Amino acid sequence: MPAPRRFLAALPLLLIASAAAAHTDAEAGGFVSGLSHPVNGWDHVVAMVAVGLWGAFLGAPAIWLLPVVFPLVMALGGAAGVLGLPLPMIETGIALSGVVLGLLIAFAVRAPLWVAAVIVGVFAVFHGHAHGTELPEAANPLVYGVGFVIATGILHIIGIGFGFLAGSRPGRIAVRTLGVAIAAAGGAFLFGLA
To answer: Which InterPro entries does the entry link to (predicted)?
Structure first.
C-alpha cells in the first residue's frame, strides 16, 4: 500500500487515540499538558493542520519548511509569553490564522516560499504567545514546550497527509474544500461563534 494510503488508513486511529496519563499535569512536569494542549483547542488544531496542508499543497521545500518554521517561531512566541512580554490582539491573531491559511488553501494560492514562511511565522507568534501566557503554574516551561512542539508537529503531519490527496482532481477539490472549512472555523472563532 503506498505511503499516502497507509497514512490515510491510520489517520482515524490518530484522531481517536487519547493520551494515557497516570499523573496530573503537575506530577508529569507539564509534558502531558504541553502534549495535549494544542489538540484540545480547535482554533489551534485548524491552524496547525492548515500549515501542513498548505505546505503539502505548495510542494517541496515548503512541505517540510513551513512545518519547521511554525514550531520554531511558536517557541519564541511562547518564551515571550512566559516572560510576560505584551502582544496585542492575541486571540484575533489566532483566529485570523485559520481564516487566512484556510483561504490560501481554498484559493490554491502559490505564494513564494519566503512569503509563505513569513505568513506562517507571524501566526506562529500568536499561537506560541497565547500558550506561553497560559502555561500552567506547576509546569516546567521547557518540558511543557517540548510536549507542545511535538503535538504541533503531529498536527502538521496530519495536514501534510491530507495534502497527499491533492494528487488527483477529486483530491484537489477535497483539499480546497477543507481550506474553506478551515477558513470558516477561523471565522467562527474570530466572531465568537465557536
So the answer is: HupE_UreJ
